[in-house]
LRC43 protein (Neopipo cinnamomea), 319 residues
Amino acid sequence: SLTAAFQEYLRHLGLQDFPCGLGSWNKSCLSGRRSHCRVQPRQEEAVLDEETTEALLELLRDQHSPWALPQDCSPQDQILREVAVLAPELVYGSRVYRVLKSLRMVDKGVEEIDEGVLQFQQLEELILSANQISRITSANLPQTLKVLELCCNTVDDLEDLCSQPPPELQHLGLGHNGLCGPSQEKFLTGDFWPNLISLDLSFNNLTDLLGLVSQLSSLQKLRILVLQGNPLALIPTYRGFLVDSLPKLSILDDIYIGPDERQQFHGLARQPELSRSEARVVVSVGEMKGVPDPSALQQLEVGSEAPVITCSYFVTYEF
């Protein structure tokens, strides 16, 4: 579950170990928050000298320090470590859930967004890319969410997510999942996402361009849309039809929509017959290995009565 993965993540950060935490080394703990200090059994307070918070923070920030985080760590990691120095009582127990407004748990093997996530009472951004999530129960999502990123999971159904969706959500990332239309397109409307500005549906299995556009047109605040990697993106009039059908859109597939492009495709939305769900794909084979070369077979002599052996091969392409 996401809660279990978060607890394991906290243990890895070592928020209760030097130079973080409520240890005897933290001078601010000893002077201003003595009542919160809890020395663990067998911990010898005299081993470490008291340090100022500035000195402890320097140990976290200096890249040459053995306690420094890797340079590619997330801002979330650094924030929690520094809070554990400045106000260590805030990262003890359930209080840590009230510190974060952004939670990034990427490639942690998360399969379920459980009820414990509701403890993040101020959470605005939840990034859960590259996990193993197939269903999202919206009742377990904080209603304060503005960003929900679920790229590279196994989501194939949005019904549970749309039962009680976060009303203020501005970005929904569902790229590289298993969404198929038209059963899922009905959940991509303004009734469920009235404040959605950015939507990523790239690299799914969406095929019905006309049906999808009819649903997306109800998203009045939508300005950024990513659909590349879906079969419907192979339709020749794909980009032009979307540009003309969604006049408020500013960016499509990471490419800005300028006035010239809008003028170029003006009127295409009124010609749906040009956006048939068909595409022509040309495949050129540059090299094949493992197939016997017929010219290398021994040639039969003219008039020979030996049986002629023929071989046939076929190649399949799966998209």
Remarks:
- The chain has a mean pLDDT of 81.
- The chain has seven helices and eight strands.
- Helices lie at 2-13, 27-32, 53-61, 75-86, 209-216, 238-245, 259-264.
